[in-house]
Write a structure and sequence with these properties.
With 420 residues, the chain is of the alpha/beta class. It folds into 2 domains: 189 residues, Rossmann fold (3-Layer(aba) Sandwich), CATH 3.40.50.720; 185 residues, Dihydrodipicolinate Reductase, domain 2, CATH 3.30.360. It has 13 helices and 17 strands. The strands form 3 sheets. Strands 15-14-13-12-8-11-10-9-17 form a 9-stranded mixed sheet, with helices on one face.
Length: 420
């Protein structure tokens, strides 16, 4: 496999070639990028504002500054160190605010990129849409089921574009994998296992105790659901996308079994999601062991894909020609006679197949830059993709239901009022 540094123009061309027109029906959010791959002309500048310029917001800012046809004309953050950093990062040409409602009064702003803590997503998104701005909001959508629905309703009422930041939907490696899965490479998908393991306390240093909840908001239930909304939302979206379904039931257990430091969110979660087709997503996440990192394992009777690693493993790989005769001899000796009183079963050893790469080269992008390019192109063309929003909505609802199932220690069924 070739490691490849490619410039943005070459990347978009590669994106178009890999996905192709055959993917458009199943992933309609690629239409704008597929069109972009055929023509590099920029018609008009999209004027954006950044709302929340912390760690994620800073990354989005850097990527947007490298996106042709985009100009950041305003930014907002109510935490002084972030506000100062944003001014230095974006430069004097943009206007700074500490109150986003004042920022939304700028008529020149066409779209807002929101990268604030989870609990602020819904009100800021709804206010921005109602102010006539298109919105790109980071995942997960919102802290509650009701707020997720409120965001969708606001998009439908205003007609503005609302895109949620699930970058794997724009990662070429994932797109190629989904294309091959749709073509039957693994057979019907019977199980997905996904996990995200870390070994740290997830805390950030604070200047004083009065800022504990503002800076470490991920650890408190008023603001976040921890591992579920910050990590699991990524991988549940992938499972929903691949199965082309939303879960019917979810059950699981969560606990705080390592970081006894006053946090309110689980540091260890284990869930099972059952889909209408009978397929399962088995999900776990922890912050006390990083041995296995993170992965999504897609399994069917013909093989397995590990999407983060970008590899596919055949269930029955063809043997090397040179050992076919030896294998036949061994099989004849093993199966021609059945010893009386012998073992009634033999455990299956893990497959020795080392797998093949899904792509023949690595493109240095996790999809975040591509989703921002797609958002800018959507704003420029005035095109909202409802399926992109549906994917994000269902991922967030599944995430929130999973947390409720762990809290209640019950099997929960997907509420029909959260089908859109």
């Amino acid at each position: 496999m070739i490691q490849d540094d490619v410039n943005r123009r070459d990347f978009i061309k590669t994106f178009g070639m890999i996905t192709g027109t055959a993917m458009m029906a199943s992933v309609p959010w690629l239409n704008v990028l597929h069109a972009k791959s055929k023509s590099q002309s920029i018609t008009g500048t999209v004027k954006l504002a950044i709302l929340g310029v912390g760690s994620r917001g800073s990354l989005l800012t850097l990527l947007l500054q490298d996106t042709p046809g985009v100009e950041i004309i305003a930014y907002c953050d109510d935490y002084p160190p972030n506000f100062k950093m944003a001014g230095e990062l974006i430069g004097p040409g943009a206007k700074g605010f500490t109150d986003y409602r004042e920022m939304l009064k700028m008529a020149e702003i066409e779209a807002v990129v929101i990268a604030t803590p989870l609990y602020e997503h819904a009100r800021m998104t709804v206010d921005s849409l109602n102010a006539g701005k298109h919105v790109f909001c980071e995942k997960a959508m919102a802290r509650t089921l009701e707020d997720c629905k409120r965001m969708v309703d606001a998009q439908r009422e205003t007609g503005q574009i609302l895109q949620i930041g699930h970058q794997r939907m724009f990662d070429v490696k994932y797109l190629k994998a989904v294309k091959e899965i749709r073509q039957g490479k693994l057979g019907n998908i019977t199980q997905i296992r996904a996990y995200w393991h870390r070994n740290n306390d997830w805390r950030r240093p604070i200047p004083g105790p009065e800022l504990e909840r503002k800076i470490n908001w991920r650890l408190y239930r008023e603001y976040s659901l921890g591992l579920m909304t910050e990590l699991a939302s990524h991988q549940i979206q992938v499972a929903n996308w691949i199965l082309d379904e939303v879960p019917q039931y979810v059950s699981g257990f969560g606990s705080i079994n390592h970081w006894h430091d006053g946090r309110e969110v689980f540091d260890n979660v284990n869930l099972v999601y059952q889909y209408p087709s009978g397929s399962h997503l088995i999900y776990d996440s922890m912050t006390s062991n990083k041995k296995y990192g993170y992965e999504e394992q897609i399994m069917g009777p013909l093989g397995t894909m590990e999407l983060e690693a970008g590899k596919v493993f055949e269930e029955f790989p063809p043997p090397a020609p040179g050992i076919l005769q030896l294998i036949n001899q061994i099989e004849n000796r093993v199966f021609d006679t059945i010893p009386i009183g012998g073992a009634s079963w033999v455990p299956d050893d893990p497959s020795a197949d080392k797998g093949k790469y899904i792509m023949d080269r690595v493109l240095n992008s996790d999809g975040t830059d591509m989703e921002l390019i797609a958002f800018a192109e959507s704003v420029r063309s005035g095109t909202h993709t409802d399926e992109l929003l549906r994917q994000a909505f269902y991922a967030s609802i599944a995430t929130l239901l999973g947390d409720q199932a762990m809290l209640k220690r019950e099997v929960l069924e997907w509420p029909q009022e959260y089908m859109i």
